């Protein structure tokens, strides 16, 4: 079988043993040509020097920044995005050009916009705001040929997008509002943990998937530590035409560098074929 999928490392959850700016080089040392990050700064609009250091770390490591999240608030504190959060919508809008600017420098074309938790008793207003903000983000991304991703997430009680159908409904509303460069981020772990029919999503919606992430369940560790049929599902995605990046977004069960044994080294590089 020819393997068309390209694997990359989420350096916000892997290699956390190292300072953030050393992680792209560690991923390269482990045999990968791509990395992705959640928003790697504490603020929505960091200083130019801080951005330059991040861009240099990725470039100097010789890896592709395959994906980048927009600013999502305090992730460790439970925030899951600002897209639908009225009180912080301005922060998200200020962050758009910064995020796309980093993408322009590093050739990144996939930008994950975490939807945001429910904040009160006006979900319809949040959903309307989300469409407005996603359209703004998509138009900005379109200037560099980029795509804005929307992701179902598990483990956050107030996050409203749990299934692929939830996210696809948002994408449909964004398209109706005039932005076509939006797609589903299919994290197979989140979908499975939320009880979605992952095989059904792959069968029906591969063409709408812009990016894939994986972790095993239970535990959210590397493939082979749980019960999810990840290898088969990745093969199904490939058979149905997905040839993009697969982000390794798992918490390693041991040292990060020791967690890649499930993926032969000759399949880790972006151009690898086996």
UniProtKB/TrEMBL annotation:
Keywords: Isomerase. GO terms for molecular function: hydroxypyruvate isomerase activity. InterPro entries: HyI-like, Sugar_Epim/Isomerase, Xyl_isomerase-like_sf, Xyl_isomerase-like_TIM-brl. Pfam families: AP_endonuc_2. Residues 25-263 form the Xylose isomerase-like TIM barrel domain. It comes from the Bacteria. Its EC number is 5.3.1.22. Belongs to the hyi family. This is Hydroxypyruvate isomerase. It comes from Amycolatopsis viridis.
